[in-house]
Every structure is written in structure tokens, then in C-alpha cells.
Amino acid sequence: MTAEALEISQLSKTFRTADKATHVLDNVQLSLKKQEFVSIIGPSGCGKSTLLKIAAGLDVDYEGLVQLDGIDVSGPSKEKGFIFQEHRLFPWATVEKNIAADLSLKNPEVRQKVDEMIELVRLQGFEKAYPKQLSGGMAQRVAIARALVRNPQVLLLDEPFGALDAFTRNHMQESLLDIWRQNKTSMLLVTHDIDEAIFLSNRVVVMDARPGRIKAIIPVDLPYPRNRVSASFQQLRTQVLSALDHVEEEGNSYEI
Amino acid sequence: MIGKAGVKRFLLSALIPFLVLVAWQLAVTNGLASRQMFPPPTSILGDFYDMLKSGELTHHLGISVLRAMVGFLIGGGLGLLFGLLNGLYRRTEELLDPTIQMLRTVPLLAITPLFILWFGFGELSKVLLIAMGAFFPLYVNSFLGVRNVDSKLFDVARVLEFSRFHQLTKVVMPAAMPNILLGMRLSLSTAWLCLVVAELMGADQGIGYLIQDARSYMRTGVVFVGIIIFAVVGKLTDSLVRVLESRLLQWRDSYKG
Ligand SMILES: Nc1ncnc2c1ncn2[C@@H]1O[C@H](COP(=O)(O)OP(=O)(O)OP(=O)(O)O)[C@@H](O)[C@H]1O
Ligand SMILES: [Mg+2]
What is the CA radius of gyration of chain A? Predict the structure, then answer.
């Protein structure tokens, strides 16, 4: 057993099409400790989703090392829960069946776990509802429950709250922290939202574009629950912003 | 649970057919139309009652329904099977689909004489004709259904480590269900149509036979009864699938008009 839940080292990724090759990730070095919450932030197109898909095992065409708990990642598995930007629930299945997915609700163990998860994501009373009857935030909570019910070691989240309004997003961030505290899952979250990154994580990873590489890693040593308007929060926001600014500037000069 | 609005809607939709029936009855009883060619609705109802009482109607209807069902099960079943198979596997699609598409362009009615030549007027040629008619709608639609499955949901199935079997039963089948049910409706109505053709071509039992037989004896009322039975049963089976649809597809979030 290592202290790292997820270990990524010297990861490079190139998309090759018939006429050109796009170097998307260059020598990415990142490790996620057990029970740690890390956010990745960076300009659009810098390879955040690509990185997350590789970590999930959805894309295995890369150079470098990706290990989960000391074992090479060779494909998707339940140990790596994945939350997509859209909820991607099965529209034909009720909330509880979506969470159970390929497990049978007739199994009392599964039934109990599913009920626990429904309680955790605060969706009691909606067990028998179809996705069309849910709001965006509720649907995304079902998606999180569906991943959590499989006891993942890490949860990989790709801009999970991007499509939600500010109010719901704040609420979801708090739920995610609750879930994290209760479940002790390691979290790797991709986001566009600086406040979200600082509010949630132990470390904020700032990425650079073309090719995507890690520009800075900013530790967030504030106690939970965090106050978004506190001075120290503001200070961190400035820090992340300036790291991002460097990225933007370089990106621009790169273009010229 | 039919509310007041439901009754109103029914009355409204029944208004025109009702008026037509009344006009028909009046026209015949007043000598405006030939009783021989247009037996009045009341006399058709009488014929219907007599045939029902003698058991003649149920006997022939039973035979017809059986033929249609056997033909539909064989043809529709194969259509569903090959539709799913070709939808799932590119290899079998490349092997089978061109041939199937070629056969699909052949008009069914044109090969009926060939079937009669090969298999005679017996049950085999009838069931085969019905099966052939029922095959294509289910084939085309279940194939389309599989190909319309959102590939994003396949990614979900991969992340959740679905087995091959669960991918089929929990992702492909439910996603393709709207198309499959549509194919089923079209297959059933085609099967019913082919049954009429097959029975009118020559049969010694069944509703089609009843119509042909009545025609040669100028029993126009019975011809009408046969036609109405064909229409009613066709409509009933269609409604049955629609009930199935509303049950199985209640998850759908689509425009309802
Ligand atoms: N399948 C693919 N084939 C070729 N290029 C791809 C493919 N997927 C992504 N890319 C390229 O890789 C780069 C990074 O894409 P990625 O989706 O990882 O960006 P991102 O950081 O998640 O952006 P965003 O914040 O907008 O979601 C982009 O320039 C994109 O054009
Ligand atoms: Mg992305």
C-alpha cells in the first residue's frame, strides 16, 4: 500500500490524425494522495479532460506511467469513479435503478447501499423518478451516487457542475464536501471556476496550454468549511489568477 | 378512468361515422341505393349476429389470427434478431445487409404467384408470405434503434464495467426500444395486410375465404362483415402495441403535441 491513490508521471499524449499530430499533454507529473482533494484548472483546450480520461482508463493510448494504488491503469474500472460534465443517466431507468445500474436491487445488500447513497445525496422521495423529472443538479447528484455506490478509490470529476446555475453549484459543492468527508474518497476535479477549486481542494493544479503541462501547484491550507469572502480566500484567488495570467500571456505570445 | 373530457372527445370523434351510417341506412330504406350492393347497416349487423351465433365467425377469425400470428412471430422474430445482430456487429452487417436490402425492394405482391407456384395454396405459402412482410419493418427499425444508441452511454457502461450481457440488456435494448416497438407496429400491420392478400388469393378457411365465398353467392352483407372484422382486428392489435409503448416508454421526454 502506498500513500498515493493515483500516481501520474511523465505522462505525454499526442492525438494523431491522418494529416497532423496534436501534442496535447507534455510530461505531466501529478500524484493524488489518499483522501486528498485536488482540482485542475486551466485554459480551454489545455488537455484537462484528456488527462482525466487517461486517469480513468478510458483512453489508454499514451506515454508515461499512470498507476492506481501502485497498479498500472489498463482500462476503466469501478475503482475509478467518473463523473461526466453532463449527468449521462440512463433515461429509461428510475433514480434507484440508475444508481444500481448493473447490480440487482433485489439483492438486499445492493438495496441497502443504494438507499444509503440516496440519503447521502439527499434524494429521498425521488427513488422512483425518471431523469426527465429531475433538475440538472439532482441528476448530477444521482450520477455521483451511481459512482459512489461502487466504492471507488478515486472519484474523477470533469466539470461536473459547469452546467448548473450559481446557487445550485454552491449547494452541490457543499454536498460534494460532505460526501468526500463521509466517504473518504480521493477526488480529482476539473473545473473552470477558480472559487470552486479553492473552496473544495487541498491543492489547486494550474495547467498551461499547447502543449498541456502543469504550470503551478498551489496548496490551499484553509480549514473546512471555507469562507468564500475571507481575506485568505481572496489572497489565494489572486495567487491562482496570477498563475493563470502567466499561462494566458504565454499562450498569447505563443500564438503570435 | 374516462373523465367528462374523454366522453366529449369520444362523442366528437364518433360524430361523422355515425352520421354516415344514418345517411346510409336512410338512403337504402328509401330506395335511393341498391339493397343488393349496399345492404343497410342494420342488415349487416343482423348478418354479423347470425355468423357469431353459428360460430362461423369465430372459427374463421381464429384461423386468420393464428396464421397472422405464426407468420408475424417467424418473420418479425427473425427481423428483430438480424436487426440487432447487424446493428451490433459491422461484420455481419457487411455480410447480410446488402442482400436484405435487395430483397426488400421486391414488391411482396409480385412474388405471391411465385410462392403459390412453389408451395401451393396451403398454409406454408400463406405463412411465408406473412413472415416475409413482417420481417422488413422490424429488421430496419431495430437496426436503426441500435445505431441510434448514444455512444456517450456506452462510455458510462465502460466506466461502470458492465458485462457484455448487461451492455445489451441495460443499454442497447432499452435505448433501441422506441424503434423496436415502432417496427413491431409496422410489422404487425404488414402481417395483417399480407394475410388478407394470402387469403383472398385462395383459401378454404379464414376471414378472407369468408369474403370470397360470400362474394360468389352475392351475400354482400357478409362481405361487409369480413371487411369490418379485418379492420377492427387490425386496429385492435395496433392499439395493443400502443398500450405496450406507453407502458415501456413512459421514461421518454418528448413532445406530446
Ligand atoms: N479525439 C481527439 N482527437 C484529436 N484531438 C483531440 C481529441 N480530443 C481532444 N483533442 C484535442 O486535445 C486538446 C485538449 O482537449 P481536452 O478536451 O482535453 O481539453 P480541455 O482542457 O478539457 O478543454 P475544456 O476546458 O474546453 O473542456 C484540444 O486541443 C483538442 O482539440
Ligand atoms: Mg474538457
Answer: 19
